[in-house]
Specification:
By secondary structure, the protein is an alpha/beta fold. The chain has a single domain, classed as 4-Layer Sandwich (Purple Acid Phosphatase, chain A, domain 2), CATH 3.60.21. Helix content is 35%, strand content 21%. The protein contains eight helices and eleven strands. The strands form two sheets. A six-stranded mixed β-sheet has the order 4-3-2-1-10-11. It is globular and about 50 Å long. The structure holds manganese (II) ion (MN).
Length: 250
């Protein structure tokens, strides 16, 4: 039995290849997965659990099917932080705390989206504090869906603009932040996404106090971490249909 970890699919109606790859992946693991963990940014944008668009509904239905075969857990990303209890009730997907520790084959393993590790990106961290504020979210969710969709489009455009002016280093994980959060949770392994830089950081073990595994995005191909009693294997997942489009990082 294997446990699967994915993140940063950034599912969007206009990128059907990624959605197809996701559903193919779900079909493939359905009968033998111990659990599936989705570590944030499953969706490119999430305007609220009351989203009645056919695209959102189709993904909810597919997740509900999957969660009847094995546990599916989700941890909020910086794109889909508005996912809440109604989504969980309608999909059977358990929504995890932003910092979640699991016992993975006997090893205390910390799960994060990864955006909190990018502490050098001061502008983003300020934005995160705003949009994670419950009062701010309550006000946003009180707006009609159309207004929320317009607002989300604005934020996405502003985010693309802001990223184009930032260095690669600023948008990567800060290793002091990695070491701090792993120590605070007494974990020797960390799995996260967000940076879209898939890697198993063996060489950083001593510096951060454990093994950091970074999941990749699902733009040109998929990225899956498979963990079983033999160990952890970070795999690229080729899309069956070739794709010419790609999104932006983060
Ligand atoms: Mn992200």
């Amino acid at each position: 039995m294997s446990t699967y970890f994915i993140s940063d699919l950034h599912l969007l109606e206009s990128r059907p290849q990624a959605t197809q790859a996701f559903t193919d992946f779900l079909n493939r693991i359905r009968d033998h997965a111990e659990a599936l963990y989705i570590l944030g940014d499953l969706f490119e944008v999430w305007v609220g659990d009351d989203d009645d668009a056919p695209f959102a509904s189709s993904i909810r239905e597919r997740l509900l099917q999957q969660s009847q075969s094995h546990p599916v857990a989700f941890l909020r990303g910086n794109r889909d932080f508005l996912i809440g209890e109604r989504f969980s009730a309608e999909t059977g997907v358990r929504v995890l705390d932003d910092e979640t520790v699991i016992d993975l084959h006997g090893e205390r393993t910390l799960l994060l989206h990864g955006d909190t590790l990018c502490t050098d990106d001061v502008g983003y961290q300020a934005f995160r504090r705003t949009c994670r504020n419950p009062a701010w979210q309550h006000q946003l969710l009180a707006q009609p869906l159309a207004a929320r969709r317009a607002f989300a489009a604005q934020v996405r455009a502003a985010s693309a603009d802001a990223m184009s002016g930032k260095s690669e280093a600023i948008m990567d994980a800060n290793l002091d932040a990695v070491r701090e959060v792993m120590a605070r949770h007494a974990c020797t392994r960390l799995i996260h996404g967000h940076t879209h830089r898939p890697a198993v950081h063996e060489a950083q073990r001593a510096q951060v106090g454990g093994l950091r595994i970074v999941l990749g995005d699902w733009y040109e191909q998929g990225s899956v971490l498979v963990v079983d009693h033999n160990g952890a294997d970070l795999q690229a997942l080729r899309f069956t249909v070739s794709t010419s489009d790609s999104g932006s990082a983060g």
